[in-house]
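P.,

For your records, the input lines for the assembly:
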Amino acid sequence: MAEMIPKPERMKRSPRQMPEQDPKKRIRNFDEVPLGYTAEDAIYEAQRCLQCDPPPCVSGCPAEVHVPQFIQKIVEEDFAGACIEILKTNSLPAMCGRVCPQEEQCQRVCVYNKKDKPIAIGRLERFAADWAREHRVKEKLLEIRKKDKRVAVVGSGPAGLTCAADLAKMGYDVTIFEALHKPGGVLIYGIPEFRLPKKIVGHEIDKVKELGVKVTTDLVVGITKSVDELVEEFDAIFLANGAGAPQFMHIPGENLNDVYSANEFLTRSNLMKAYKFPEFDTPIKVGKKVAVIGAGNVAMDAARTALRLGAKEVYVVYRRTRKEAPARVEEIAHAEEEGIRLDFLTLPVRIIGDDKGNVTGMECIKMQLGEPDESGRRKPLPVKGSNFVMQVDMVINAIGTMANPIVARSATGVQTNRWGYFTVDEETRATSREGVFAGGDITRGSATVISAIGDGKKAARAIDCYLSSGSSLRKR
Amino acid sequence: MGRIITKRKIAPEIISLEIEAPAVAEKAKPGQFVILMTDERGERIPLTIADYDRQRGSVRVVSQVVGKTTAKLSRLNEGDELFSFVGPLGKPSDINRYGTIVVVGGGTGIACIYPIARELKEAGNRVITIIGARTKELVIMEEELRKVSTELLISTDDGSYGKKGFVTDVLEEVLRKEKDVKKVWAIGPAPMMRAVCKATKPYNVETIVSLNAIMVDGTGMCGTCRVTVDGETKFTCVDGPEFNGHLVDWAEFMNRLARYGQLEKSSFETYKRERGKDNG
Ligand SMILES: Cc1cc2nc3c(=O)[nH]c(=O)nc-3n(C[C@H](O)[C@H](O)[C@H](O)COP(=O)(O)OP(=O)(O)OC[C@H]3O[C@@H](n4cnc5c(N)ncnc54)[C@H](O)[C@@H]3O)c2cc1C
Ligand code: FES
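Structure tokens returned:
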């Protein structure tokens, strides 16, 4: 066991950095960029924790991870115990440790954050989960009496997986229905290998299956089977089909050959493994000079993927400024280190092509910030006469996604709002139809893995309550 | 789901597969398609449903070897399991009692028009079917189609069977003769569908085409299948695959179809070379 160091000593330490692949090297491979803590790094960082009581960090975590307890286990060098502690509430720790915006969640409320050096909770979580996976740690599951109630979960992203895992742990018979041929949602088709290795996603999904959760892939709910049919066959339903439909800008030239939606580009590369073409059969194209529109995590992922696929120059084009960019600070930093250029206050107005449909340029206009709009962000306004043409031969559109109506159309009596998202009770995730619950991006628009996990947990609790008491806990 | 129940070679390089997929068969309607993968490393490719049998719980697809994926598919045997099989995707054909209808099929498109012709006939329409291929041995499903058509007309490019020429030549004759054609369905290679639209335009006959766009998910998630119809962007997989052919932006559609041409060709060549080595 590592030594417990006195508090003043702990407070003097600076956070332990995590080593990363050198930017020059990593732009030529799809290997993970951050390399993870060593045991020594993890212990050093864990020793900084003040073990606050009550712990503010836990309140910042929708997955309700027992943060101080797992960190203490790391100090005690009981790494398996640390992971088991996390698994008590969060079935997807290796993923959360990698892609959660901890700076907005647990680490934001860490007492150390006052001095701008919060405990690196995410890195510790990642360390514990990776250690347990590499050492094949098996958590002992409590013997649970099987319940004779069946729950259907639509979609196998973080919301669906979490809800399914929690319900299985309570003894329910759970089946996940997934439209694609592989489960995982955005974790599998969207987020690239260099940020979230698919082997790790696969491992965490396997653990969920080991709990007894059945996964039926290749089944499009709303097409192969309607929600109404599921209601007939199952005692409760959790809708977690994500917000997967790509948005376009509706500017001229958007259907030219090498204009991709980020969804297409990333799905080809991640889900279909086109970055290994021709070893894998799905092709992907990449231009010499690529423009990516948007400045969220998706845009950074697309830009960095384009670079790794061989683009010489990649520009991220965003109509507001760095301050408003929705991507995590870390993702923007990674992109810039890799040589991706960010063009702020720039709005594409037209994509230019030749008669074969090839992209030859993108016309943009410069913007300036005006008064704040309804989202509180200052509204970008075009600067008259500032049009210019960017010399690019490929454009990736990463301006966001929206609800795909397929599931909702087949769900009689389940209300949606004007954007097509299911309207739910915040706490119970209950929809307007008895026994039907919903969570994740399909209830809020594109958000985060951790909010989806939080929804999955809430829904599992409410479904348990509903199935044991017969009330769906809906606010009336 | 996805087991090959029967496999028949119906022409050189063209196979007909009956695939076990009760959930798909139960919902399938004419005009819809499936997406399949042969193996884990494979591509997701759309194939139009050529027939379905709810009793047997099976779906039939017809595929011609045109690239690596279809070549891999043609090598699978009865009893083999596809890695992935999902459907029925897309909107079904709008089957109604219209009156006189002409359905036109070219190449493997002939297989796709079969369930449409059958349902149209059952709905009480007078169905004139025109099928065409390069040469006699590529004319498929003649007998099946004859059963579900009021009249069946055939053309081959080289004149080895039926009328010499293109399906459009036969269609022009029919349009000249028949004064009251209510609608035309045309399924086949893009240039053929475009030519049919050109032929029907002067007669002002609504012409439905089924676009064989490049797809990935087939559920509206990626947008690779987008096409401009009447000035608006549509997703072929969820808004189609059938559209009013007179409103389709054909030049754009054909450019987009050719997007991966080079890459696909080289991957197919490599595959054939490697197979050649295996066999030799
Ligand atoms: C490229 C990218 C990068 C991101 N990066 C981050 C990040 O770094 N950190 C972060 O916190 N968040 C990130 N996000 C957002 C995050 O991934 C999502 O908020 C989260 O995955 C939502 O989870 P979900 O379970 O609601 O839905 P999803 O993950 O979208 O999963 C929904 C699942 O439902 C399936 N489905 C859809 N329709 C049907 C149907 N009709 N029938 C059956 N199944 C269906 C889908 O195929 C999918 O598998 C990113 C998103 C993208 C696209
Ligand atoms: S195939 Fe992906 S949206 Fe149509």
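Two observations worth noting. The mean pLDDT of chain A is 93. The two ends of chain A are 53 Å apart (CA to CA).

Regards
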